[in-house]
């Protein structure tokens, strides 16, 4: 079993690689080779099997031809131009998120080996004038270029799979919280930083009201779901192979209460509550009430509670 | 007012051109120039204003640059690789239906003039595991490459419009019946030929049961809706600018009864009823119960009855 992770240098890619190294198997087979590919040669992980790294640009078919060979059984396509950059630069988003996904699919078609392709879509495909809650039957009406490009990726993955050219399956990632690392200026940054920074002894600002609701998943459960996602038998995927990955809808208040239940009340006192009017319009579109019935029926799971998200951060990621 | 019809050589393009010639105005302005463009130089129409024709390949950005200039106020993008060909040849469908649509949008962006773009999507974006009736809020889960490429076009039209690069609006055309012309081998061919051929004194075969239901519109109403579609004020389009064009759900029996009501019972006796098992799987996916509430609220209209479809064919199209 040869596994390729495109986007193997990112947060989810690295965690997925470490988890696969720990398991040693995928789809009931022993992994003998894992390739971590990213736009810059990613950090390898320790494993009991061969781990290779590669620089790969999915916007370049020749680069993909060098990276995806006919021995590759499972491909994770995690690489993407993220939301803020895709909004700033339409062309780079189209080139990587849309054409890059098509290039991966065309490479699989060219090989004729019908590999399993796990594509990560995003909660950002939702939005617009569609009524909530969003479920497996609701129109994708994205309101960012990133969301539009991911929705296009879903249509391509479905069509290439329907034609038997690849065994694709796509999962729309919830907002991942608690993300490790440094604070960033992304509009969604506060959704992790209001927990991460206080848990690490720092302050952080929350720019929305306590009743702001959104759809979340921990990094640990995300990785477990990506592994399960590769293992779903093809015949169970139905006619729409792209679906919401299970997460849970929490309000900011519920999440803070969960943090308090795990670590006591002092931590939440490090959160400040200053509105950022320039973010209001963006964040209004991010209230999201979502149902992931199909993925749940296929065995994927949300966190049991946000207390778990907090515990996983403390166990897996807190800066020491 | 300069109007460009890309796909101006096709059935709908020619009828639209003739209707615009007859009206002389669009969006409240006098038309001074109309350009009919198609992959081969289309037939011009008679009009009281300048009519130009052009050969244009939307898959080629240079060809589009020569065809769409900064004087163009309204663009109709009707050109496409049709369903059967896009299913046979994935690459040509991607090149024309997906990249061609993107090329038109990029050309509009390059000009910076924000023209009105009327994009024709298709009933074929519907299908898959989505429950019927399909409405303005239901997931697009197309089960043909043509449908997937049209759904991608919708996402691109919405995103370029959201960014203010074009004033796009997309309409999913119902199955057009009664189409004039010769019988063809398309799986959907019978949906026109069982009326057209008998009305012209010939026989035709119906390969489905009397209770087969689908979603239809006459060519005349389609053209009227495309004109109204260009005239909808941008601010009324909302966050999803692509919608089903109103049609009506009829069973084969209802349509035949309508024909009999208009022309008497002898005509329907020219229909034969032989199943074509090779079509069963395709046609099972074409039973379609659809609601077009949004487009109706914006003033677009279905035929009042299938008797009207028959009358329009007799008035506009019957072979003399």
TrEMBL record, chains A, B:
Pfam families assigned to the protein according to its UniProt record, in alphabetical order: Epimerase
Record's keyword annotation contains NADP: yes
Transmembrane segments: none
Coiled-coil annotated residue ranges, if any: none
Enzyme Commission number(s) of this protein: 1.1.1.410
Nucleotide-binding listed as a keyword: no
Span of domain NAD-dependent epimerase/dehydratase: 3-202
Entry GO MF terms: oxidoreductase activity
Enzyme kind, highest EC tier: oxidoreductase
Matches recorded under InterPro entries: DenD, Epimerase_deHydtase, NAD(P)-bd_dom_sf
Keywords on record: Carbohydrate metabolism, NADP, Oxidoreductase
Classification via NCBIfam families: ErythonDh
Name of the protein in its database record: D-erythronate dehydrogenase
């Amino acid at each position: 079993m040869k596994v390729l992770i495109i986007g193997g240098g990112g947060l989810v890619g690295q965690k997925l690689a470490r988890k696969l190294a720990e398991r040693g198997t995928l789809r009931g087979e022993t992994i003998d080779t894992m390739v971590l590919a990213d736009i810059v040669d990613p950090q390898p992980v320790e494993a009991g099997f061969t781990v290779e790294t590669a620089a790969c640009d999915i916007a370049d078919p020749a680069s993909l031809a060098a990276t995806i060979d006919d021995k590759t059984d499972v491909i994770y396509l995690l690489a993407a131009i993220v939301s803020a950059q895709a909004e700033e630069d339409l062309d780079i988003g189209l080139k990587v998120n849309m054409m890059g996904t098509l290039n991966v699919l065309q490479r699989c078609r060219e090989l004729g080996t019908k590999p399993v392709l796990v594509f990560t879509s995003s909660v950002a495909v939702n939005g617009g004038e569609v009524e909530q809650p969003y479920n497996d039957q609701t129109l994708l009406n994205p309101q960012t270029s990133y969301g539009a490009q991911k929705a296009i990726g879903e249509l391509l993955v479905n069509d290439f799979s329907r034609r038997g050219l690849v065994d694709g399956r796509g999962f729309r990632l919830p907002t991942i919280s608690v993300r490790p690392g440094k604070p960033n200026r992304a509009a969604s940054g506060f959704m992790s930083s209001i927990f991460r920074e206080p848990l690490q002894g720092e302050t952080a600002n929350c720019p929305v009201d306590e009743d702001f609701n959104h759809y979340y998943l921990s990094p640990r459960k995300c990785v477990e779901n990506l592994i399960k996602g590769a293992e779903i038998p093809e015949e169970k995927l139905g006619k729409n192979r792209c679906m919401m990955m299970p997460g849970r809808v929490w309000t900011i208040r519920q999440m803070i209460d969960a943090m308090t239940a795990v670590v006591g009340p002092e931590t939440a006192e490090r959160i400040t509550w200053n509105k950022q009017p320039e973010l209001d319009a963006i964040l209004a579109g991010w209230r999201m009430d979502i149902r992931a019935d199909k993925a749940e029926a296929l065995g994927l799971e949300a966190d049991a509670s946000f207390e778990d998200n907090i515990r996983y951060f403390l166990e897996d990621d807190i800066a020491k």
